[in-house]
Design goal:
Elements lengths: L5 H5 L3 H10 L4 H15 L10 E4 L1 H21 L10 E5 L26 H8 L3 E6 L11 E2 L3 E2 L15 H8 L5 E5 L6 H7 L2 E4 L19 E5 L2 H11 L32 E4 L10 H16 L3 E4 L6 H14 L1 H9 L8 H14 L4 H18 L5 E5 L16 E4 L5 E4 L10 H4 L5 E8 L5 E7 L5 H15 L4 H4 L6
Parallel strand pairs: 2-3, 2-6, 9-10, 9-11
Antiparallel strand pairs: 1-3, 4-5, 6-8, 7-8, 7-14, 11-15, 12-13, 14-15
Helix pairs in contact: 3-4, 6-7, 9-15, 10-12, 10-13, 11-12
InterPro entries: Amidase (IPR000120), Amidase_dom (IPR023631), AS_sf (IPR036928)
Organism: Leucobacter coleopterorum
Protein name: Amidase
Amino acid sequence: MASASACELTSLSATDALSAFRAGTLAPSELLTATIARIDAVNGDRNTGINAFTELLFDDAIAAARVADNSYALARREGTPTPALLGIPVVTKEKHGLAGRSLSQGLTACRGETAHANHPVVDRILAAGGLIHARTTSPEFSCATVTHSPIWGVTRNPWNLAASPGGSSGGAGSALAAGMATLATASDIAGSTRIPAGFTGTVGYKAPYGRVPGLPPLAADWYRGDGPMGRTVADTALLSAVMSGRHPLDHGSWGANGIRPDAEQLRGPEAARGLRIGLDLTLGDYPVAASVRANTERVARQLEAAGAEIVPVILPWTTEQITRTTFAHFGHILGPAMAALTAGTEDQLAAYTGQFIADAARAAQGVSLPESLALDAALQCELADAMTGLDALLTPTQAVEMLDAAGDYLDGIDVVDGNGNVRHLDHYWEAHMTSPFNVANRCPVLSVPSGVSSVGVPTGVQIVGHPFDEAMVFRVGSAIEALVGMPAHLDRIYPTAG
C-alpha cells in the first residue's frame, strides 16, 4: 500500500489495516502518519471546524507506532501472533482517564484535574497494542446529546458543519467519520454511543450492563456503560472484544475478555436468512422524520429480500412515559452526583448542565427509588412481550434529521413527523429513540448506518437483542452493513482533502 493516498489509508477499516500489517504491505507508522496528516487537514479550530479533540498525543503514539513496526517484522520472521489492536490508531473519550492527563469532563470547575490511573478500557486498549493518538470531546459530564462546552467549544458534524454529531460521544463520532481515527471509545447512559453513531454514519455498540468495565462509584448505575465505536461492524466487534470482560475494579463486570463474533456470524447478507426481526418505526409515539422513517423501512425491505421475516411490532410507549421513567432514575443517581460535583460553581456550568440537574431533581420528587424501579420494570416487561418469538428488534436510532451544533434546546424541540405534522417535545432528548434500551440495559444494542437524511446528515437504525445475546446484534448488523450501501465516508466528506 506504499502508493496509497492519505485518504485511502485513513478510510481503511481496522480489520483491513491489521491484515496489511501482518502481510507487511503497510506499517503502523505509515497509517499513523496519514491519520495525523488527516487531522491537520480537516479538524479545524474550535469556532468553525470539526473540533473533535481535547488533546493530541502524537509524540507518544509515534513512538509506539515504531515499536509496533518492529513487532510486526519480528512476528513475520518467527510466525508469532500479535496483540489484537497492534498499530491501530484509537481515540479515547476524555472521560476515559489516561494517567497524568486531563480528567475535567468538560467542566470548567474541574479544569486542571488529572487522572491518577488509566481507566480499565484504556488499559486494555494499550495492552492490545492500540495507539492512542488523541482524546475526544464531549458535553459537560456527558449529560447532553449535543457536544459543546465552555472548555472545548463546539464539536461539529463532518457531514454538515451546521449540525451536531450528537452526544455525548460526539468527538468520537466526528473523528471516525472524518477519517481522523480508526477506532474510538464511547459511553452510553441514554444513547451517548448510538446517537453520535447515527448522526455520523458510524457504528456504535451499547453492550449489556457490566459487559464493559467502568469505574466506581457510578459504574454501579445500571443505565450506563462504556463501549466501542468504529466505521464497520467487524471493527466495532473487535474493539468490543478488547474492552469487554470482568475487571477487579468493577464488581458489576462480567464475562470473558476477548470474545468476538466469528466469521459465521459476520457473514453479510447471508446472516439475515431465517431470522425473525421485529420492526417498530416509532417505539410508541415518537414523531419520526420522514427521511429517517423511509431509510428504516428500506433497511427492513432489504433484510426481507435477504431471507429474514420482518414482523411488525407496536410498543405501547409514549415519549412522556420514557422521559418520566428515565429522569426519575437520573434524579436518584446521576443528577445528585453532578450536583455534588459542581456545588458552588453553578455559575460556571453550561446552560444544558444546570437544566439537566434541575430536571432530574424535579422528576424524582415524589417518586421513590423503589417506585423508579417499578417504572423500569414496566418498560422492560413491555419490551420482553414485544420481542417474544423474535430474534431481534429493528428501530430508528434518532427521530430527527439533525440537531444544531451549538444548540442548547432549553425549551425543548419542535419536530416534524413522517406525516408532516409539527409536534413540540418538552425535552429534546425525546428526539432520540435510544434511552428505552438503557432502561432495558441487559439488552445489547448496535446502531448501524441506514442512509442519509434530506439535510445531508446520516441516519441510523438500532438492532436490539434479547438480554445478553451479543452475537445476534452483530449478526444482523453485518447483514445490514452489506445491504445498505452507504456512501464511502472519505469520498463523501471533504473529498479533496488528504
